[in-house]
Amino acid sequence: MLKKRLLAIALAIVIIFSASGCEWLRDYALGPSQGTPEVSALPTLPHKNADLIPLSVFTSYAEYTAPILSPDGSMILYRHINGFLDDVIARDWKTGRETVVSWPQVQGNPWFMWAPDGKTVLFFVDNNGDENYGLYTSDIETGDTKTVLPAGANNCYYVADNKRNGNEIYIMLLNRGTKLYDLYLIDYKTGEKTLALKNPGKITDCTFDMDGNLRAVTMTDDRAGKHVWTKNGISNNNTVFSEKEWTEIKSW
Known about the structure:
It is a single chain. The protein is 13% helix and 38% strand. By secondary structure, the chain is mainly beta. The longest helix is centred in the first third of the chain and has 29 residues, at 2-30. It has two domains: 55-199, TolB, C-terminal domain (Neuraminidase), CATH 2.120.10.30; 200-252, no CATH class. The protein starts with a helix and ends with a strand.
């Protein structure tokens, strides 16, 4: 029995060495240029840091925001963030004169734009990031700031200018009772606001004519369908939406 095992082991050793020898002879005969081609190495990232996009580019604020043209076209408004400096700048693009716009007295995430008068900047800012946006103004000539609607207690956003009055804009203001946004006309200099249309719960967009009159609204149904309604008459100043006073002209 032991002899059979030793014989089997010896035979296995002979076979292994024979195969290795044949493989060695084949490689030697073919040479390095004729042998099995080597697998190409996978591409690697460049070693120079200058060739890589810094992570901060993806995680930080842009240094400049897109410019916003003033109503008369003479100035641009933009935000410049550089290190600890964070400024909103009004620039006369013809003369190059720059004015740093005074920030309103509130801490939060800002959204800003020109007011219709071309010398006031409207700031929509929330209260320390709570996403309840208030309305503030800053005069680029005097540097005076004003709180029109305080953040936190209110939540509003810009809708349109009132073409009939350069001191007024339309905003959507959250009704805390209904949890819906109602349409208001507000004087951003005095803070006086007037309800223009109470939201029945479906209005998502408002359209005005060149005279600042509300002419159409877009509604969204429960199946995400869109429906456009127009007023039957400009003189209709009813603040409550009624299908008898409006006509549906398009839906999809």
